[in-house]
Amino acid sequence: MERRDFLRKGLLVYFFRLGCDFVKDAGLDEEEPKDYFESYETAYPFLNEVSMEMLYQAAAQEGIDPTGKSKLELAREVYRNRGVVYHDG
């Protein structure tokens, strides 16, 4: 490979591969997206901001019975029923 070809093509490929290796080593390339409502910790920002009254209203609009359900379970059902799937990341 000539020096000109290396600077035009080879160097770009080298940096691209280096970046890909960095992403893999850092664990930033998750194969499967995580469910936002998988656990209380992953959905904490949402659950902290929304009130139970708001979730009860949304559940009533969707025809979901909220009795005996935690805030997380209710939020998960409302958003799945609406066809909105949130993934972390």
Structure description:
- This protein has 89 residues and is mainly alpha-helical.
- The chain has two domains: 1-30; 32-89.
- It has helices at residues 3-26, 44-49, 52-62, 71-81; strands at 34-35, 87-88.
- It has a two-stranded antiparallel sheet with strand order 1-2.
- Helix 3 runs parallel beside helix 4.
- The longest helix is centred in the first third of the chain and has 24 residues, at 3-26.
- The radius of gyration is 22 Å and the shape is rod-shaped.
Question: Which terms summarize this structure?
Answer:
single chain, 89 residues, mainly alpha, 4 helices, 2 strands, rod-shaped
Can you summarize this structure?
By secondary structure, this protein is mainly alpha-helical.
